[in-house]
Design brief:
- By secondary structure, this protein is mainly alpha-helical.
- The protein has one domain: Alpha-Beta Barrel (7-stranded beta/alpha barrel), CATH 3.20.110.
- The protein contains eight helices and four strands, in the order αααβααβαβαβα.
- Strand 3, helix 7 and strand 4 form a beta-alpha-beta unit.
- Helix 3 packs across helix 4.
- The chain starts with a helix and ends with a helix.
- This is Glycoside hydrolase family 38 N-terminal domain-containing protein.
- Keywords: Signal.
- GO terms for molecular function: alpha-mannosidase activity.
Length: 206
């Protein structure tokens, strides 16, 4: 249970924001209607079939077509065109790389989008880490590095409130425990065992 002590110091940097972001920026729900949430989000592998730079710049397209720098730029422009749009950014590694290339005008636009809750960060790690094949220490390290960048650059509004692990090949109770100790309110996952899925449908916990 060593990791219990190691992750507790995350708590101060995951405080609630007092600005018009986070939950304060969500559309109001109507209890008498069915409320459907359609979430536009990034899903950019921080290394898989190609390297980080190859994904970011779009090289070796014969392996996989992906140009992450243009995805982020397109999202920012689309958000500015329509104030009703929302988007969530997951992979801080790519977002950091993109941020370093932007001029002051573009940076101010992104600051405004984050402060108004229209561009939100979920997860907050440098990557969406694997849960079963890694030791807890590098997982803590990559979250520490990424969350520090987000808070130092954008303030409290950039700090995520939910964990986002929709792509790892399986999940562990230790990862869920770390997310809880880091102060997250929720945990979204995508790949679970079919028996677990059907059991959750039966108990209405899916």
């Amino acid at each position: 249970m060593k990791y219990v002590c190691l992750v507790l110091w995350f708590l101060p940097i995951l405080g609630l924001s007092q600005q018009h972001c986070g939950y304060n920026a969500c559309p109001r729900l109507n209890a008498s209607e069915l409320n459907v949430h359609i979430i536009a989000h990034s899903h950019d592998d921080v290394g898989w079939l190609k390297t980080v730079d190859e994904y970011y710049y779009g090289t070796r397209s014969h392996v996989q077509s992906a140009q992450v720098k243009y995805i982020i730029s397109s999202v920012v422009e689309a958000l500015r065109e329509n104030p009703k749009r929302r988007f969530i950014q997951v992979e801080t590694a790519f977002f950091h790389k993109w941020w370093q290339e932007q001029n002051e005008e573009k940076r101010q636009q992104v600051h405004d989008l984050i402060r108004n809750g229209r561009l939100q960060i979920v997860g907050g790690g440098w990557s969406m880490n694997d849960e079963g094949a890694v030791h807890y220490q590098p997982t803590i390290d990559q979250f520490t590095f990424a969350l520090k960048f987000l808070k130092d650059t954008f303030g409290e509004c950039a700090l995520p409130k939910v964990a986002w692990q929709i792509d790892p090949f399986g999940h562990t109770r230790e990862m869920a425990s770390m997310f809880a100790q880091m102060g997250f309110d929720g945990f979204f996952m995508g790949r679970i065992d079919w028996r677990d899925r059907y059991a959750r449908f039966g108990t209405r916990t899916a």
